Amino acid sequence: MIPEWMKEVNVGPSPCCSVSAGKKNFVGKTLSGIFNFLEETIASEGYARKSGLLQSLDPRVKLISIVTLIVAVTMVTDWRLMLLVYALTLVFAAASRIGVWFFIKRVWLFIPIFTGIIALPMIFNVFFPGDSLFTLVTLGPGARLGPFALPETIAITRQGTMGAISFTLRVATCVSAAVLLFLTTPRDKLFKSLRSVGTPRVYVLTLDMCYRYIFLLTDIVKSFYTAKKSRTIKNLPLLEEQKWVGGRIGYTLVKSLDMAEKVHGAMVSRGFNGDVKLLEDFAMKPRDYVAIVTVVGFSVLLILYSHQIIRI
Fold first, then answer.
1. Confidence band for 94, pLDDT divided at 50, 70 and 90
2. What would the pLDDT profile of 259-300 be if each residue is shown by its tens digit?
C-alpha cells in the first residue's frame, strides 16, 4: 500500500529547481555552506603557492614581523597611524598577488559583528560622557532606568565615536595582518615556523590536528547530508529536520573522538613525537634580514610617534 503523502503531487518547480531559485531547506543551506568553506580554503592554499612578495620571505620572518606589527598596533593610540598600517596591509596583499577585494571581504565579514556588539555602546553618552555630536532624545532632569540615573539628553558623543572608530580600525588592522600571514604561508611551513620560534610543541600539535580534522569532519558531515538528500523524496517538517541535525551533531562528536584516538595511536606507533618535519629546511636570505629589520624598526617608530616620544 502506498502512503497518502507519497501520492501528493507538488505543484510548481521541483525541489532542485527551488533550491536554485534561492529557497533552500536545511540540507541545501548546510551543503552550500560546506562547499563555500572548502572553496575558500582551497583558494587560500592557492594564494600561499603563488610567487608574490610575502610568499618569497622566510616563514619565520613573516611570523615574527607580523606579530611585532600587531603588538605595535595594539599600543598605537592615533587612528591615523592605524589607518596607515591598514592601508599597508592592502598594499602588501596586492604585492603578494592576493585579490584586494577578496582580502577586504575576508577581514570585514566578521569585524562588524564583533565590533558592533562591543563598540556600539561607546558612542552614547549613557556609557561614556563626552561632547555631544547628535542628540537622539531628551529625557529631562531626573530620568532613571531602574536603579541607574540617565542624563537629561541621550546623545552620540565625539569622544565615544572616535573611540569606536579607533577600536574598529585596531581590530581590522590586526586581523588583516594575521590573515595576510595565513594566506601567504603554507600550513605546514607555518606550523614549523611556530616551533622554530619556540612555541611549545603541544600548542603547535593541537593547532595542526585541529586544522586537519576541520577538513576531515567537514567531509564526513557533507557525506551525511548527501546521503540524506539522496534518500529524501519529500521535505520533513522543520522540527524533524532540526532533530535530525542534532542527532548528526552528536554522532559526529562521538565519531571524531574515536577517530582521534585511533589516529594518534597510529602516529605514535610510527615514531611521531610532535615535531613538524619538512623536507625543505628554512634558510635566511639577505632580503629576509632586510624585511625583519624594516618591520621591527617601523613598529618601534609607530609606538614612539604615537606616544609623542619622537616627532617627525
1. very high
2. 888 888 888 888 877 666 666 677 888 999 999 999 999 999
pLDDT mean across residues, the chain? 80
Query: Which is nearest to 284 in space by CA: 180, 193, 204?
Result: 193
Query: For residue 194, how many other CB atoms are within 10 A of its CB?
Result: 20
Instruction: Specify the DSSP class assigned to residue 71.
Output: H
The x, y and z cell numbers of residue 252, run together, are 559526529
Residues facing 100 on adjacent strands = none
* Helical segments of 199-285, H only: 201-231, 238-269
Record the pTM: 0.72
Radius of gyration of the chain from its Cα atoms, rounded to whole angstroms: 26
Phi, psi of 153 (to 5 degrees): -130, 140
Give the domain ranges of the chain.
52-267+284-307
Q: What are phi and psi of 138, to 5 degrees?
A: -105, 120
Stronger pLDDT, 145 or 51, i.e. the higher one: 51
Q: Enumerate the β-bridge partners of residue 132.
A: 157
Joined together, the cell numbers standing for residue 304 give 614612539
Q: How far apart are CA 210 and CA 137, in angstroms?
A: 50
Q: Which of 281, 227, 289, 220 is nearest to 256 (CA)?
A: 220
Q: Residue 68 and residue 53: Cα distance in Å, rounded? A: 19
DSSP 97: T
E-assigned strands of 45-139?
Answer: 132-138
Output b/e per residue, 132-144; b: 16+ Cβ within 10 A: eeeeeeeeeeeee
Which residues is 154 bridged to in the sheet? Answer: 137
Assess contact for 160 and 131: CB atoms under 8 A. no
E-assigned strand segments in the chain: 132-138, 144-145, 148-149, 153-157
Length of the chain: 312
